[in-house]
Amino acid sequence: MNFPTNVKYTSEHEWIRLEGEEAFVGITDYAQKQLGDIVFVDVPTEGETLEKGETFGSIEVVKTVSDLFLPIGGEILEVNPELEEHPELVNQDPYGKGWIIRIKPTDTAEMDELMDADSYRQTINE
Q: Model pTM?
């Protein structure tokens, strides 16, 4: 299983990577393996500003739909346009081409409350 060290993790299995004034958000390798084949990603909140922990969308697999939670507060700038035609990118490359949203954080200090790779690995191995 893949645990990149350049991202922070939530207990709900989302990751966030800060790049300058913006951040990319997706689900972890562990989450995509647990879910199975992803068939649809729905993010109706593009353009909205949400608080940390709020639901920003959902991810659909063959038998279920799971909510997606924002790791830190911010404005949803963009939904990954590739996912409309190729939701399987989340399975194939969850930390790269399978990112779900790009946000403008309202307070990057909230990142300090998230887990690093070692802490996240420990939580899923318990």
A: 0.95
